[in-house]
């Protein structure tokens, strides 16, 4: 019995139609959050139209924040470097990649300038999304006459459900997972894995695992010598080649993964997406329970208590999980705290500020 989980889920629900689990999960989570928000608004004498307005604005600004957050915080040179290049005296603008190839020196194309809009390339940052949410709350606060803290706290009750499904979408994409672990719930993310090996070593590993007959080892080694590139190679691509040329059979895939794990070619990793997802689900449960219990007994529903719980649970979890998460970009290798942790600290500080206001609010209520 394997003491780890082999994760090899196709990110696309229907191959060829480009309908992905991530998009479906995001939509489900956002819809559930909307349903809960509408109930809260109706209870507190707002209209369903108010819930619709906040939801639409939140969705729009959330997406902008998610994308711009990644571009600004994690890859600014890639996405905004071309704009700075335009101010260089030796850099010219060309309209197409073909012109860029034929031109000499520094060039910038329309594609370079517009890459930050290309969400299909991947790259969304939750901290940028949080900033987008704050902008949406400020807008709705001014429009509705409700305080900013009221809007943020009510939204905080429902946001965890979207966050839960987003992290499960990350799991389906086999992305943003953790470092290697020997724990029994470690995941082998087959679709994202890369290995470095030689034709001789891989042939011997497969032979020792009984995946190839002894008299076929030389043939396999010769085959791999011709098709195995130097350096890192995608494990999924290598597996597909072995299957295509019948050096590996479909029923042997699990044994092949296990052989590579046992030999050290593959690692089992922390499923940090699940860690965060479960924390967000627990956060939603805690906040909904707090809101319903206070409402049921006609007690003060503290905006500061809700916000403090949300800040600590969301960004405190993110801060600590980052210690066992793989770096997202190369420049994080030399950082004591990675970018996700630095970006979490201001939000954690906001949590402490909310605690202070909650204590003052409680004292005033007792004196009244």
Strand tally, please?
8
Largest sheet: 2 strands, parallel
Strand-pairing-aware structural class: mainly alpha
The averaged pLDDT comes out at 90
Low-pLDDT stretches: none
Walk me through the structure:
- With 368 residues, the chain is mainly alpha-helical.
- It has 2 domains: 5-74 and 123-181 and 270-367, no CATH class; 194-262.
- The chain has 14 helices and 8 strands.
- It has helices spanning 21-43, 48-73, 76-85, 97-102, 110-114, 126-144, 148-172, 199-208, 217-227, 235-244, 253-262, 272-296, 303-321, 339-367; strands at 5-7, 12-14, 19-20, 91-93, 106-108, 187-189, 194-195, 233-234.
- The strands form 4 sheets. Strands 1-6 form a two-stranded parallel sheet. Strands 2-3 form a two-stranded antiparallel ribbon.
- Helix 8 (199-208) runs antiparallel to helix 9.
- The protein is globular, with a radius of gyration of 25 Å.
- The model has no long low-confidence stretch (mean pLDDT 90).
In short:
This protein has 368 residues and is mostly helical. Helices cover 62% and strands 6% of the residues.
State the main characteristics.
two-stranded parallel ribbon; mainly alpha; 2 domains; 368 residues
């Amino acid at each position: 019995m394997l003491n780890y989980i082999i994760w090899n889920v196709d990110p696309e629900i229907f191959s060829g139609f480009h309908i992905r689990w991530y998009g479906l999960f995001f939509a489900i989570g956002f819809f559930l959050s909307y349903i809960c928000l509408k109930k809260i608004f109706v209870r507190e004498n707002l209209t369903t139209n108010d819930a619709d307005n906040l939801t639409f604005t939140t969705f729009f600004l959330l997406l902008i924040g998610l994308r711009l957050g990644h571009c600004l915080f994690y890859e600014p040179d890639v996405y905004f470097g071309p704009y700075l290049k335009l101010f260089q005296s030796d850099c010219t603008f060309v309209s197409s990649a073909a012109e860029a190839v034929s031109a000499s020196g520094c060039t910038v194309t329309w594609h370079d300038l517009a890459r930050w809009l290309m969400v299909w390339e991947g790259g969304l940052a939750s901290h940028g999304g949080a900033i987008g949410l704050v902008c949406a709350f400020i807008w709705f606060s001014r429009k509705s006459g409700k305080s900013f803290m009221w809007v943020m706290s009510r939204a905080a009750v429902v946001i965890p459900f979207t966050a839960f499904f987003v992290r499960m979408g990350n799991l389906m994409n086999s992305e943003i997972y953790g470092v290697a672990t020997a724990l029994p719930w470690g995941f082998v993310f087959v679709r994202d894995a890369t290995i470095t090996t030689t034709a001789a070593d891989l042939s011997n590993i497969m032979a020792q695992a009984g995946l190839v007959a002894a008299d076929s080892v030389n043939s396999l080694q010769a085959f791999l010598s011709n098709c195995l590139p130097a350096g890192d190679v995608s494990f999924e691509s290598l597996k597909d080649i072995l299957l295509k040329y019948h050096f590996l059979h479909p029923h042997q895939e699990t044994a092949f993964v296990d052989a590579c794990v046992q030999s050290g070619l593959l690692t089992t990793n922390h499923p940090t997406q699940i860690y965060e997802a479960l924390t967000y689900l627990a956060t939603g449960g805690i906040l909904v329970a707090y809101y319903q219990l206070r409402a049921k007994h006609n007690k003060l529903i503290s905006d500061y208590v809700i916000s403090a719980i949300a800040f600590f649970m969301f960004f405190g979890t993110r801060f600590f999980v980052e210690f066992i998460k793989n770096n997202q970009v190369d420049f994080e290798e030399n950082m004591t705290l990675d970018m996700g942790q630095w970006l979490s600290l201001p939000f954690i500080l906001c949590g402490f500020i909310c605690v202070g206001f909650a204590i003052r609010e409680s004292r005033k209520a007792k004196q009244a």
